[in-house]
Amino acid sequence: MSDLVFFPSGSEQQDRRNLLDFDASGLAAWFADMGEKPFRARQVLRWMHRSGASDFDAMTDLAKSLRQKLRTRAEIRPPVLRSDHFSEDGTRKFLFDVGNGNAVETVFIPEDDRGTLCISTQAGCALECAFCATGKQGFNRNLTTAEIIGQLWLANRALGAGLGGERVISNVVLMGMGEPLANFENSVTALRLMLDDNAYGLSRRRVTVSTVGLVPAIDRLREECPVALAVSLHAPSDALRDQLLPINRKYPLAELMAACHRYLERAPRDFITFEYIMLDGINDSEAQARELLALTSELPCKFNLIPFNPFPGVPFRRSQPERLRRFAEVLMSAGVVTTTRKTRGEDINAACGQLAGQVGNRMRRLVSRTYPLQEVHP
Ligand code: SAH
User: Fold this and answer.
1) Do 97 and 149 belong together in one domain?
2) CA 351–ligand 1 middle distance (angstroms)
3) Considering the entire predicted model, what is its pTM?
């Protein structure tokens, strides 16, 4: 209501603009509309993303009058952090409330040489992959740019970064809930902020988009914001992939492989990562590994085998370790780099495909905190 008081001249009601929705060029344009110079926008961008500021008064190198103007017209509003769960293995899961009873999750995975933040791009997902918990809940809505970049903004603060210490989050993967390329504009705006030296300054090689394989959007990403690409393959043939990932009926394997080839012309890494979830007796035979080799023989790629993470009501089982090992061996003996993903955060349901977004859901709480709003972002 107070906005009405602050904007008496306009005939329309005007909400404060959430500046987390802008990348550098968007912010510069918004500043220009206010009659402010581009370098002011750059200063604010740095304050928000490099220093984690949420309060215009903290931006001490801005004139008081500008700070006052910003206070009345703008805000810095990340998504609402509901809870924060710590796994025994160091994985940490943040649960954000995005309204209407929906939540999205962000997972921080510390490793010896890096810290990876796994970010969500949609509340729910429309793609209905047969093995994915997020797909089972259906699609709710696209996250805004502020909600996507806000996950990084808040995780950085919660992990104590931005205080002159070393970088805690060195890698970001858009691999949480949702399909990033189905929320293209907002995901790419957030990606630009991740890459921007005035914001998070991550290298393109350390930012990964994981996609189910939306072919036209892969081409668009290649033009607009090439970052590392991971493709959820999961099956070596159209017959099987059609069943596991219904989107394959629209963009079958031949088209997907062709899009991967085109992507590599611009990609910051010279390979595509194929994610391959290991489903017992479904897609994990040695013959299927050889089929995969034939499918990808022309394409520089790596395989990341993902042990299936079960959830209630799903008809699949995780592959036996011996089967997984033999499958990996077939790929590796053909010279294809193959890693098996270590399952992390299982005890807090933060593992791949276990991200189901209901506020107050069934998570076992090992060590967890529920925040009142103010505690993390004033
Ligand atoms: N929509 C994007 C990103 C989200 S899913 C994509 O499809 O790539 C991130 C990864 O987790 C994908 O490779 C997905 O196939 C995998 N995944 C989904 N459900 C899983 C489960 N139950 N166990 C293990 N991995 C799963």
Assistant:
1) yes
2) 9
3) 0.90
